[in-house]
Amino acid sequence: MSLINLSCPVCQNKSQKDMITYIDTSKNPELVGKLLMNELYSFECSNCGAKRQLEVQMVFHDPDKKVLLINLANQEYTDQLKDNLMKYIPSNYDLSDYDLRLVRNIPELVEKIQILQFGKASDSVIEIVKLLTDGLFMKQKPDAQIINRFFTMANGAPKVYYILQEEQFFVDYNDSLQDFAEEKYNKANTETPKGEFIQVNQKWAVQLLEGK
Ligand SMILES: [Zn+2]
C-alpha cells in the first residue's frame, strides 16, 4: 500500500488515500477480482461525492504464470520509475524467464489479466488478432473511427470490445483468426523476449507484421 495524494477533478478537494501498489496473485487472489470489477481504484470524493477511476503506478505479479506487469499510469517509462516499483517485489524472485510487460493504464492492465485468464493465446498473438479484427471491422464500417479496442471476456466468451466516437460494442473473437495470427507470429523473425520489460500493444503488432 502507498499513500497517494488526490485532487477531486470536480471540486478540487484535496485528500489522501491508501492504494494497492503491488498485487501478488498467489497471496491476494481476491484483489484480482476487485481489479477486474473496477473496484480497486475507484474513488468517491468525500466533499462532493464525484466518482472516478484512479490511475495508480503499480505492479501486478503472477508468480505461477511467471508474468509481471507494470502500470505506468500514463507516465513515460524511466529507469527510476521502474526502480521505484520493483522495490515492491520480493528479491527472491528470478525474473529472467518472466514475461515482463509495461502497460499505459489500468484498462490495458485489465486486458492483460483477461488474456491470462483466457489462457489460449499469448498477448503477442492476441495483439495480432486485434489488428486482423480491425481489418474485418473496417470492411463493414469503413467510416468508423476506432478510438480503442480491448480483448475482454463477456459472459465467459472471448470478445474484442470496440470503442468508437458514438458507440461501443463487442465483436466476436475469431478462433480462425487466432490460428492465422499464431502462424504470422511464428513466421516473424522476432520472438517476444523474456526477462525484459516491453510494451506489447498495437504498435508492437504492426511492427511485427511489417517485419521491423
Ligand atoms: Zn469533489
How would you portray this structure in words?
- Helix 4 packs across helix 5 and helix 4 packs across helix 6.
- Helix content is 32%, strand content 27%.
- Strand 7, helix 2 and strand 8 form a beta-alpha-beta unit.
- It is α+β, with helices and mostly antiparallel strands and 212 residues long.
- The longest helix is centred in the middle third of the chain and has 18 residues.
- The strands form four sheets. The chain has a four-stranded mixed β-sheet with strand order 3-6-7-8, with helices on both faces.
- The protein has two domains: 117 residues, no CATH class; 87 residues, no CATH class.
- It has six helices and eleven strands.
- Zinc ion (ZN) binds next to loops.
- Zinc ion binds next to loops.
Short descriptors:
about 210 residues, binds zinc ion, alpha+beta, 2 domains, about 25% strand, 3-stranded antiparallel β-sheet, 4-stranded mixed β-sheet
Secondary structure topology:
Elements: E1 2-7, E2 14-19, E3 22-24, H1 29-36, E4 42-44, E5 51-53, E6 58-62, E7 67-71, H2 79-86, E8 99-103, H3 106-118, H4 123-140, E9 146-154, E10 157-164, E11 168-172, H5 175-187, H6 202-209
Residues 8, 10-11, 13, 45, 47-48, 50 line the site of zinc ion.
